[in-house]
């Protein structure tokens, strides 16, 4: 009876909660194609139902993952908010700024060269260009509006002061907009993966095509971690701070 109750409780937890509590869970969900960042608000039971999966094997793999040695450097949920915000900027914002322009250029190139035989790459190039453009505005809003307000609130709390009401109002207003941005960019990157057939490389393409798909997958993987840190850890903590 106890095992059944525990399984029911676990099935009712959201995917984001699993990964926020223990980042080792991400590997399990990735294996089954379950989105733990943009789709992290759904429960395990719902995610399995949508994928046509039996939750029992996933719960067994989750339990097995928990006994593996943890990577303390990835215990993001234990980090204070200013440190987590700086980490996101230095690691994930930096990655986007360094890589997005080059990936967009590669995508345009393979669309020009291979678009006649592989028309999907034309749409992929267009979608990625919009993603890159939209993300630059998103990063600026986080760096210039949200994260400074978060740091001001945390500093006030440390000093025993009441945070400024305008900072709380600013955060609430900004979080709703940024969360919607995450939904939109998540949908777009999933469409790219679908068009690229999980980044399968056709037989009749050049090395640039192969490199572009490799970089698109790397970009998606980085975005998953980036959005997870915000949607499932930073944003919920900011809402209750």
Describe the model.
The protein is mostly helical and 241 residues long. The chain has 2 domains: 2-74, SP0561-like (Orthogonal Bundle); 79-240, no CATH class. The chain is built from 9 helices and no strands. The protein has helices at residues 2-11, 15-21, 25-31, 44-51, 55-66, 81-114, 120-158, 165-195, 207-240. The radius of gyration is 20 Å and the shape is globular. The two termini are 38 Å apart. The model has no long low-confidence stretch (mean pLDDT 90).
Q: How are the SSEs placed, and which strands pair?
A:
Elements: H1 2-11, H2 15-21, H3 25-31, H4 44-51, H5 55-66, H6 81-114, H7 120-158, H8 165-195, H9 207-240
Helix pairs in contact: 2-9, 6-7, 6-9, 7-8, 8-9
**Percent range of helical residues:** over 70%
Number of domains: 2
Looking at the structure, what is the overall shape?
globular
Task: Write down how many β-strands occur, each being a DSSP E stretch of 2 or more residues.
Answer: 0
Structural class: mainly alpha
User: How many helices does DSSP assign?
Assistant: 9
- Termini separation comes to 38 Å
The major sheet is characterized as: none
Segments where pLDDT lies below 50 for 5+ residues? none
GO cellular component, one term: cytoplasm
Keywords: Cytoplasm, Iron, Metal-binding
Domain Hemerythrin-like: 87-238
Subcellular location: Cytoplasm
């Amino acid at each position: 009876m106890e095992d059944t109750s525990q399984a029911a409780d676990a099935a009712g937890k959201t995917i984001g909660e699993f990964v926020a509590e223990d980042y080792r869970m991400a590997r399990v969900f990735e294996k089954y194609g379950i989105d733990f960042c943009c789709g992290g608000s759904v429960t395990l039971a719902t995610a399995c139902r949508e994928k046509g999966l039996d939750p029992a094997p996933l719960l067994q793999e989750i339990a097995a993952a928990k006994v593996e040695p943890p990577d303390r450097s990835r215990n993001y949920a234990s980090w204070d908010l200013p440190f987590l915000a700086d980490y996101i900027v230095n690691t994930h914002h930096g990655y986007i700024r360094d890589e997005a322009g080059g990936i967009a250029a590669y995508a345009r190139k393979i669309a020009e060269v291979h678009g006649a035989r592989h028309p999907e790459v034309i749409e992929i190039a267009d979608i990625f260009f919009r993603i890159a453009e939209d993300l630059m505005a998103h990063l600026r809003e986080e760096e210039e509006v949200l994260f400074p307000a978060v740091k001001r609130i945390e500093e006030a709390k440390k000093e025993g002061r009441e945070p400024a009401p305008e900072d709380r109002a600013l955060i609430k207003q900004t979080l709703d907009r940024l969360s919607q941005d995450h939904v939109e960019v998540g949908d777009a990157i999933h469409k790219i993966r679908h068009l690229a057939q999980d980044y399968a490389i056709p037989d009749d393409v050049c090395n640039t095509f192969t490199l572009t798909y490799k970089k698109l997958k790397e970009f998606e993987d980085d975005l998953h971690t980036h959005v997870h840190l915000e949607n499932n850890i930073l944003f919920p903590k900011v809402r209750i701070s």
